[in-house]
Structure formats: structure tokens, C-alpha cells
Amino acid sequence: MFSFWGRVLYKALIRDAVIAVSLTVSCSDLAWASDYGTTGLIDLPSARMQEDAFLTVGAHFDDRHRSYTLTYQATPWLEATFRYTGFEQFLFWDRNYEIKARLWSEDYWRPQVAVGIRDIVGTGVFGSEYLVASKRFGRLDATLGLGWGRLADQGVFENPLAQLAGRFESRDLNVRQGEGGELALDSFFAGPKMGVFGGVSYEFEDWPVNAILEYNPDEYLINQEEGELPPSRAWSFGLEWELSSGIVLGLSRQHGDEWGLSFRSTVDTSAPPTRMAHDTFVSSRDLSAYELPEQIKQSRWYDKLLYDMERSGLLLMSAKLHRPSRSVELVIGNKSYALWADALARATALADLHLPAYIRSIDFVVEEGGHRATTVRVIRPSTSYSKEPAFLASRQVIMGGRTLVEPEFKTDFVTNKVNFTVGLANRVQLFDPDDPLRYQIYLDVGAEYALTNYLSVVGHYSLNIEQNFDESNRIESDSLIAPVRTNIVKYLIEGASGLDSLYLQSRDSLTSELHYRLFAGVLEEMYSGIGGELLYQPFDSRIAIGMSLNYVKQRDFDKSLKHLDYQTVTGFVSAYWASPFYNFDLAVHAGRYLAKDVGGTLELRRTFANGWQVGVWATITDVSAEQFGEGSFDKGFFFRIPFNGLMGRNTRAHYATRMRPIQRDGGQRLENHSGNLWWDLRAARYDVFSNAGERGVP
Fold first, then answer.
1. Measured between alpha carbons, how far is 240 from 32 in angstroms, rounded to an integer?
2. Could you give the C-alpha distances from 271 to 74, 274, 607, in angstroms and in order?
3. Residue 672: CA atoms inside 13 Å, Cβ hemisphere, count?
4. How many Cβ atoms are within 10 Å of 652's Cβ, its own excluded?
5. Could you tell me which residues come within 8 angstroms of residue 174 by beta carbon, excluding any fewer than 6 positions away?
């Protein structure tokens, strides 16, 4: 039942997510999910929700379908699901989305109630809407719902909404041949009949097992059109077993004539970040001149502090003493700490060891990737050791970034050496209708040469180990517009090994509010060019404005230094909002895309202190749905999974990826070179420090 690509897909989507954070999801926290990904029974939704920020990845198999699901509890009251389902008896794969919103929570007398739309953006194959209630009686949870669409196949009532408007009287069921990707507003809650569905689940007290019984009116009409038999009965039952924390295996007997098997893995993306123990070493303050490196002068506090910071995973860039005010400015960088608050706490403790005794306050100028966006003032801890951490945190002052004028001390990091990185990497292309997984495993060789503190040469070369892109039937683009992305498979075949990037880059801050990034060279697998970004962000504002502009030329398919004829100018004006709601950040980009189409992109990401970032985006341009092709418009998901704590040490390393249901040419950007500066600086943003509390206290 588990084919080779199914196992690989599990590794790509499930195993990486499970091991990426150190957390525990206990059985008492876990709401059982359905085979459709949404929290529910077997195939049916319930009114239950997962805990806020829980991410569930699942694989589900029965005699009719095989399905892969991704469900995220976007807020405490909103659940979002993406499904990719293959039909076993005929060659068809369907991508669809579902949302479920809680209307109110359960209390002693009242059940929890939710409303949902299944296949809200898709072909409509699974199109159905529902209003559902769930009530708990001890360890028994009962669910009863009213459904439209497929959940009304065995209709019980006339649709009362038909009395409100004529559009609710009928429903178009011939939806599979469409391009998908559009909101079928005329079908929502429409149809001549409403159906009833429901069931019960019982969670055993002594075992991590859940027993389920459900009544499902779905008659699988789409399957019947392809010659399959209708279900024998509407009743199904199953058992779910939590193998370990957050990992669930399910077995079900569905409709009396088929078996179902499911596997799900759940992680809490909001779990408090692990505060790792510091590496122990003898401070340079306690070392003799003979024990210190040759370049470290024992008589200079700056040299000794620099030596200790580097051994602690920090960078000391420069410093300036202000003797009349008995203060010091220290520009610091962060190589190792997932949270800047942890880096600041460590820097404060080290600075207290080495600074002259008369210094009473420290201004830490936070440098993130060459940009100085924030300054944190800390009252010298030695004056307040007896105070509570919360009191010390309240005495921190957060200010705008700055550039030191004529610093008294400055570290020269230019070593005339190339810093190499070597590691295994992968490229995954999901949702190819011919084979849902295309992949490449390769060796990524990276190099960086620093010319100055703010100017460097960056490059990456890939050495192929294993890939199956050469098995694709979609090597030649069928695009009706310029094939700016749909010929990616040709790059991954002819350039399986080759130069991925090699460019000159400059990053700096002109003022505390104005930051820039310039670059020129081979920017990515498919494009070379020259361009830059500019970001205006007042340090204590939730609003920022950015601009980006690039001239690019399409590279040859073998990823050499040769180029094809296609070239264009692409650029955007961007607006950003750091919302106060559930850690959501919003970005809007308007401008010209790689295929010379014009339009806008909306990005929504939720970011947590532990480094997890989960987001979605959608792009609409002047390319019509017919020209765009399957999917109608560009959309997808963004994930960043932190590795901090996995190896028992502090690290800023993470795995970041974008997942598109379908790769087309409309609405395509240079993903890492247009509108990224604001996201790059997020870890050092004003509100991140202001919300850190005691985390920033040593």
C-alpha cells in the first residue's frame, strides 16, 4: 500500500517536521484528526479544533483514494487544511483546500459549533459545506452536523437557504474538468437538499486509543461516474492509536466494503524555545598573556571581550566609550542563538566581566545580516544583582539602530580567506499530476568571501547524488506566456550538477530607519542579473515600506555562465504590517513579475519565538486564468523549521521551503531577491525585543 514515492513523501513532509523542534504533544492536548486532515471523525469533520498553532501532516489510504494532508491551526478558532488526493481506480489527482471556523466554544449546556467549507479553492471534486456541533459527555464526544454538496448526497431536508436567494436552489456538480484554483462562490451552501451526518468517538482511559463510529451520507458520485460501485452503507467505524507523542496510526472499516489506513504527525509550532546551556570555557580575563592568542592583548578589555564573545557564538563588531555619561556602545552580531534575546543575555553577562568598572549602562547595537535596526540599552547588571529578573527586564530600553561615529575600537573581520560550507540538500517538486513527487538529493557546496564587513561574494554549487526529474513527462513547457518557471525541470536535468549562484552582495543601514541590499551576478538557478532592495522601517513602528528592482537574464539550462535570449526588468513596491494579532505579519507587493505580467502578491506569515514560521501567499496579475493554466493563479505555502536544540547546542540553522500546488509562469518573482529584506530583519525587530521579557536577562 505504501509505494516508494509515498515513503519518500512521508520523509519529506512528515519526518522533517517531526524532528525539527524539540517538543511534546501529549494525548490530552491532541484532538483527533479525520482522514480528510481536518479535526473530526473518520471522513467527517467535527466542531473540534487542535490546540492553537498545531501543525498536522497526514497520509491516508483506502480502496478509493490515497490522500496527503496538511492542517494548521492558524488561530484558536480557525483551522486550515490542504489536501492532495489521488483516485485509485482512475488517473486523477486533486488539490483542494478546506477552512473551518469555530462559531462558539462548548460550555456546560451548549455544544461547540463550527462552520466549514471543503474544497474552497480547487476543482470542486470534494465540494461540500457544513454546520457541525460537538458535545462531550465524559470520555465520549458526540458530533452532529448539517451538510451541503457531497454531505447532502442522501438529502434529508429541503435547503432552507433557497428561500433567501435563487442561487441556493441548485448546484453545479460537473466541476472536475475545470482548471480549479478559483472560489466557486455560486456553489457554497447551494443545492436542493441538506444532509445530516454525525458520529461519536470514545477515548479510552487506560490506553492512548480512540474508537470512532460515524454516519457519512457521501455517495461518492465522482467515483461512480468512473464505474465504481456506490458505498454499501453509510456507517463506518475505526480505531486510532497514538504510537508516541503526536504520532497517530488509524485503521478503519469504511461503508462496510473497504479498509482505511491513516498516519498523522502533529507538532506544536508555538512551543517555547529551548534555552540551551552555554558552552563552558575559561574567560580570557583569567588567562595569562601566554595563554591568549597572539592578537589578543591582555591589557585591552575590548580584545578580551571579543575573544570571549567569539567563543560564545557572538560577534563584537565595534565599540565606543562615553566616559562623561559612563556608558558604552557595543555593536554585536549573532552567529549561534535562535533568539536575539538569548544572545543579548549572553552578551550582557560577558560585557559585565570585562567592561571598566565605571560603566553604568550598555547600548547594544544589534547587527542582523549587516543591518543595524535596533539598539537595546541595559543597565549594568552588577549594580542590580539582588533584583528580580522581571525588574531588570523592565529597565531595558529599546531604541533605533545606529552607526557608531568614529568608534574607539573596531574588529577587522576581513581575513582574505574563503569560508566553505558543505552539506546534503534536497529539491522537492510536489503535486506533479503524473507523479506527486519529484526529488533531487545533492551535495551543496557553499562559499563566502568577505571583502569588507558589508560587502561579500557568495556562491553555491550543487553536485547531484540522486534525482528523478528525468522521468517527468513535463520537461517541455506548455505555457501560453513566457516560460519563466515552467521549464525548471530542464534545469534540474541538464543542470543536475552546476552553479546555483555566484554574486556580489552589499548589505548595510544608511540610517536607523533605512536599510539596503545590492547584488549582482548569478542570482539563482534560472536567472542572472543585477538589482537591489530598499526598506524604510521606523524602529518602533509596525508599518514598513520597501522597494525592489532587478534586471535579469534567463540562464542556460546547464546552469553554466551562458544565457538564453529572455531578459526582463522586474520590480515591486511593498508594504509590510507587523500585526498585533497572533504573531501574524502581512506583506503586500505590487509590481512587474518575471513574465512581464503586472499585479500584486499578498503574503501572510505567522512567526514564533522558537523560529517556526508558517505562511501562505497568493498572487493575482493581469494574466487571465485561461492563460495561467491549471491552478488559475499562483499560490502556496511557506515553512521555516528551526533546528535549534536538535544537536544539544544553540544554532540559527533552519530549513525553509515554499510549496506550490502547481508551478506555472504567472506571478513569479525572484524569491530571494525581491521583498525579502523585511523578513530578513524580523528576528531583530522592535516588538521581538519588547516581547522578550525575562528572556533577555542573563
1. 8
2. 15, 9, 12
3. 16
4. 18
5. none
Contact 637, 658 (CB under 8 A): yes
| pLDDT > 80? residue 435 | no
User: Whole-angstrom Cα distance, residue 628 to residue 507?
Assistant: 36
CB atoms within 10 A of CB 545: 14
Is the distance from CB of 47 to CB of 33 less than 8 angstroms?
Answer: no
* Packed helices 301-311 and 340-354: angle between N→C axes, nearest 10 degrees: 150
Q: What is the DSSP letter of 512?
A: S
β-partners of residue 601 are 589, 619
Q: How far apart are alpha carbons 87 and 84 in whole angstroms?
A: 10
Q: Enumerate residues 6+ apart whose C-beta is below 8 A from 108.
A: none
Query: Average pLDDT for residues 342-363, to the nearest whole number?
Result: 91
Amino acid at 316: L
Separation of alpha carbons 507 and 516, rounded Å: 6
pTM of the entire structure? 0.89
Q: Which amino acid is at 555?
A: R
The SS3 assignment for 462 reads strand
Q: How many CB atoms lie within 10 A of CB 243?
A: 11
Dihedral sign for Cα atoms in the order 158, 160, 164, 167: negative
Set of cell numbers at residue 401 = 539602530
* 327-334 and 361-368 strand pairing: parallel
Please give the single-letter amino acid code of residue 680: D
Q: Say how far apart CA 590 and CA 607 lie, in whole Å.
A: 23
pLDDT in tens, 267-325: 999 988 777 777 778 888 888 777 888 778 777 899 999 999 999 999 999 999 999 99
Q: Determine whether 466 is exposed, middle or buried from the number of CB atoms within 10 Å of its CB (0-12, 13-18, 19+).
A: exposed
Strands 361-368 vs 235-244: parallel, antiparallel or unpaired? unpaired
